[in-house]
Each structure stands twice: as structure tokens, then as C-alpha cells.
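Quick sanity check, MGF factor:
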Amino acid sequence: AAVPAGVLALLLGALLWAPWWALDGAPLAELSGEQDFQLFLQKNLEFTRKIKGDVAALQRVVCDTFQLCQEEELLLVRQHLGIAQAPLEQCHSRTFQAEACFSQIRDGLRTYHSSLAAVLELLPGQAGLVETLQLDAANLSSNIQQQMEDLGMVTVTYPTEDQGPLPTFSSRFHHQVGSFFILANFQRFLETAYRALRHLARL
């Protein structure tokens, strides 16, 4: 059964009024019978956790191979490269809307799916892992899109800054640093998405 729009808004709107750690005991018994929605959340929590683990594995490779391990040491290079973080402010902003949060997760996964091509180019020896990560990101994005449609949620497409093609790195070092920040940004993105799904599942 589809989640009634008002109940879904109540469920997801709870994120607007409380910090993450205060949501654990929020009583929303109205949704206790919505097994399909809970199953979706649990399945994609596991999926997101797996993707996080694969990103962390690639981060370790970049650290071990290129000695690029600490963001603080690379911030000036980052500014020069212009590697942007995919936005997720709708998942914890004071203007929280369910459609906006899920849409941003979906769109961000698509962005990182594309950005990982730079990592693949840098680490051909890790092609299997990078390609698996790309496939998982695409599948999770599709899962969210399908669930939004199943729940009758409006698909929101926000105008985003034109990311264009992959950045052109002027040197091997810039390619290494760019890949480092693509992975670091992706990991932060996944952490936020994971927290949103996890606390929704606990409501």
C-alpha cells in the first residue's frame, strides 16, 4: 500500500524539527504498518553501507599509493581544482521536504557515478572495484527513483550548477588530488544520506 501523502510528510518532516540524535524516540505509530516503506529503508541502508565501505577501500588505495590521506594538507589545491560537493541540504534543512531530500540523494548518486570515471582513469588496477561502485550508485539511484514513484511522490529536479564534463587535470598530481576529493566528497554525501535513511527507519 502506498504511504498517504500526509503521513509521509509527517514522517519526513520530523527531520525538520529535531537533530539526528533526538529522533530515535519520535513516536510515529501511523507508519508502523507500512512494511513496504520500511523494507525499502532497510534494504537501502544496507546498500548505502556497502557503498560507503567500497569508497573507503578506494580512499585507502589513494592514501597508500599517492600518500594523499589528509584533506587539510590539500585544501589550497582543492580550491584550484574546483571539485564541488553534490548538495544534500534538503535532507537536513529547515525547509525539509521529502521529495526534495530523496531527489537530491538520487541526483547526487548520478553525479558521483559520473565523477568516478576520473578515479577509474587514475587507478586502472582498481577497475573492478570502481566499476562495481559505479554500478551500485546507479542502482541505488534507480531504487530511490522507483520508490518515489511507488509512493506517489513528486519527482523534483532542481536547477544545479552545470557540472559539465569531468574536470581536465593539468598534471598527474592534480588528477590524484582531484580523485582524492571526489572520494572524500562522495563519502560525506553517503554519510548524510545514510543518517537520513537510518533515522527515518527508526521513527
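Posting the structure with no commentary besides this: Confidence is low (pLDDT under 50) at residues 6-33.
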